[in-house]
Every structure is written in C-alpha cells, then in structure tokens.
C-alpha cells in the first residue's frame, strides 16, 4: 500500500498532468471551490467500483471512494498552485493535507467527507484507533500519525 501511494503521489505531481488539469480552471480556486468542483464531477460510491489512480480517469468514471476523492483533490490543488499531499491511514482511509502558507503548517482536508481542518474526526467521530498515518508528497513519505491522534491518545 505504501509503495502504491508513493507512486501515485509522484504521478499526480507530474508537470504534464498538472498542466492538463490547470486548463480545466478559469481562475485559481479556493479550497472550498475545489471541494465543490470535485463533488460535481464524481460521486461517492459504497458499492464495488473500478479503482482509478489517474485524475482524468477518475473524472471520466464519475465515481469513487476516499482514495479517488483524495487523488483528484490533491491533483487539482497542485494544478491550482497549492502545495498538497496524499494522506493514508493504513487501516482503510485516505485524505489530503494542504500547506497553509500563512500559518506555515499543513491543513487537514477530507475531500470525500467535505471536511476541512478537523484532524481528530477519525478517532472522535469514527471511533478509529489510528496506528499508522503517512503523508505522501511527490514520492516522499512522512509519518504524520501524531497529527491525527486525539490529544490524550498521542503517546500510543
């Protein structure tokens, strides 16, 4: 799983792909506008689907799960000049982090849930016990588990 996400993060940072994606936008979108843009193009599916890792294939297919939403959202963020990276909870979920240039920190974005800056939602609302969470930026992996643990659970 780690190698797959490492590879995807490299592929969606490809300049040629980003230039093609950039042409889909008339202006630089805000994060909220990008979330809406993604949700206008793909619908979340609880059923079995064909899985795609290429943003254009995801758009064409029109359906996705958290992985497809995260790949597409990361790619359109990059195409809109945001620094963004894929995040993977090794148990079963993917989301995105976007660099906040003012705060000089990463902001949590769960594009399948349309949630921004709520990193504790997985343990608090989903009752998950996060053990391994990794961020992938252009092939570089970083352990970000501590950013997603509820304060009292950070020492686990």
Description:
The structure is a single chain. This protein has 156 residues and is an alpha+beta fold. The chain has a single domain, classed as C8orf32 fold. Helix content is 35%, strand content 22%. It is built from six helices and eight strands; from the N terminus they run αααβαβαββββαββ. The chain has helices at 2-11, 15-22, 31-41, 55-61, 66-79, 121-124, and strands at 43-44, 63-64, 84-89, 93-100, 105-110, 115-116, 133-137, 140-143. The strands form two sheets. It has a six-stranded antiparallel beta sheet, covered by helices on one side. A two-stranded parallel ribbon has the order 1-2. Strand 1, helix 4 and strand 2 (63-64) form a beta-alpha-beta unit. Helix 2 (15-22) packs across helix 5 (66-79), helix 3 crosses helix 5 (66-79) and helix 4 crosses helix 5. The protein is globular.
